[in-house]
Amino acid sequence: MSHAQPLTPEERLADAKKQLSLPHIVVICGSTRFMTEMAEADIQETKAGRIVVKPACDMKSPHEAWPDPVGAEGLKARLDDLHRAKIRLADEVLVVGDYIGESTRAEIAYARSLGKPVRFTHPAADSGV
Known about the structure:
single chain, Rossmann fold, 4 helices
């Protein structure tokens, strides 16, 4: 008599998304210098019927939520953890922009380690990753 292997958390998430009839989920990654392009990608992906998650905070721009450098560093670490959770939730990654920095490169590597498809708005940017 064989016993079925318990589902992994990833398999349980995929099953739940299927049971809930959730649309395809896309996470947008890229340098915050491309926030305008990310907003446009959000519109296009949403128009195509996909759920979109993306960065919401541009830590390079001043904001009352991160007024001091020490507090900003702690917030950035929490936001990086949150973005990795968005990658785990998503079905696919969309990298926006023609520049791939260290953080985005790490996000791409993380997504690929999870077996997530990665798409680029500028396919030439993929050659350096």
